[in-house]
Amino acid sequence: MKKYQKHASVYFIGALFSILISTVFAVVLQFFKGDVLDSAIAGDTQTTLRYAAILIAFILCEILFYFGYRQFSARFVVGCTKLLKRDIFESILKRGYVDYKTTPQGEYIAKYTNEADTIKARRFQMLPLFWEILFKIIFVSVALFVLDWRLALITIGLLTTPLYIPKLIEKRLQNAQNAYLKAVEANLAKVNDWLSGFEIIKNFSIEKKILSKFDDTNDFTMNKLLRDMTLGAVSQLITTLISYLSYFVVLSCATWLVLQGDFSAGNFFVAIGMIDQLSYPLISLAEIIRQLVAIKPSCQSMEKFIEEGNAARHGKPLTKLAREIRYRNVSFAYPDKKPVLTNFGFEAQKGGHYLIKGPSGCGKTTAINLLLRYYDVTDGSIEIDGVPLSEYCSTYDCMTVVRQEAVLFHDSLRNNLTMYQDIPDEKLIEMLQTLGLIKFAGKEALDGMIAENGANLSGGEKKRICLARALLRDTDILILDEPLANLDDTTAGMIEDLLLSIEGKLLLVVSHQFTEEKLSAFDCVLNLNKT
């Protein structure tokens, strides 16, 4: 977390300076309160008015600098939180596709929302507050020594006792905090899973069943939160009881000094003000320390999560295909599973059209995923222009993949086609016309919004928009995984003809339903069921 604090250090320094000056004014004006009282009791009107004017000026200065402290603190917290959330999102984006899919999406959302906000509340917000309280304690303590060293020693000795409470239950606080955050992650993962299957829930009329399951996970999460808050309340209760007991002891000592004649009425008034200013900050400091202690493991966990996402593969990126792709005796098996591919051999030349077909589970998609480096081969090798694929850190720059499931963002049609690249509208319109999407082939339609996951489009429209997006990207290798699935015969036939007309690219089509009469147009048809 030091990285984020350093990033916003200018605001943190501004906050420290502002609260330092504000605290000085706050402490010094306590003495002027006593002077105003003593001069008023003595009947010295002129001196009383002078001290009152100074008192008002000091109060205004305290308020002004405290406002500056709040402004700087807010900027510090926002700056730290903004960079933390950016790093979380970047860490997710940098993960490999397979690594990403092994973690429920709800856990990523929990990291970005609940855990990041908890770190904001229990660390970033606590740090300026810690120094605010600490400065006040230091200056008030010094002022008490100026007033009377005996009273200062008694006050500091008694009122600092609550600071040790959080340390005594440190492990319990941390465990309760961790248990709650993990429960939130699991809860969000479940909620995200259920909402993604909303149509199935409605179709099977299982709303009550799902709600019952939600109640179970929600109760578990809230119980963890209750335990975390209960421990905090217990710590705060013990701290408060000790603080108030100490306060009454110190008050008794100050009263004794007045009775002994060592304190004037003004001094007693100042002493009580100082003790008030010291007792509450010490209670607050104990709570701040509790928060900082409890959040420490969560900060360490978040730092580890971000580092894992930034641990990129070594090697060079693949940007161009000069000649061919070659699978050499490739074998692959998923962990604890039977081999999907065994001694698989295949060669594809740049500019050629290739079809990989076969029944479900025969390894069609796996062969493509190996090329994308989602997995590494168990045996054999895959080569790009004679160079082993293992020497590349990524193949994305050279390949464009269109999956069976059409993925569209809740954004304009233009942005869904260009993927935020600078492509002229004329080129977009031409591509849409080529794919038979005439009603979208206009500037007004390009500005139209696509609903989440393309909910306002037909299945065929979504497929063709995704294909248009892939063709506009213009990479050397174009991979289509089941491009004809769930399409009517007319749309499927049009897409088949379009694919076979593509020139200059290595086209890899994974499909088990391509029209038999058109198979001869491929340079090679690989039937994995017969290999």
Quick structural overview:
The chain has 531 residues and is α/β, with parallel strands linked by helices. Helix content is 64%, strand content 11%. The chain is elongated.
SSE topology sketch:
Elements: H1 2-7, H2 9-41, H3 45-94, H4 97-101, H5 105-124, H6 126-147, H7 149-159, H8 165-168, H9 170-196, H10 198-203, H11 207-259, H12 265-310, E1 316-317, E2 324-333, E3 339-349, E4 353-357, H13 364-371, E5 379-384, E6 387-388, E7 392-394, E8 399-402, H14 413-418, H15 425-434, H16 443-446, H17 459-473, E9 477-481, H18 489-501, E10 506-510, E11 524-527
Helix pairs in contact: 2-3, 2-6, 2-12, 3-5, 3-12, 5-9, 5-12, 6-7, 6-12, 7-11, 9-11, 9-12, 11-12, 15-17
Radius of gyration: 35 Å
Q: What is the count of helical runs?
A: 18
Question: Which H/E pattern describes the elements?
Answer: HHHHHHHHHHHHEEEEHEEEEHHHHEHEE
Shape: elongated
Mean pLDDT, rounded to whole units?
A: 83
As residue ranges, the low-confidence spans are none
Structural class: alpha/beta
Q: Tell me the helix content.
A: 55-70%
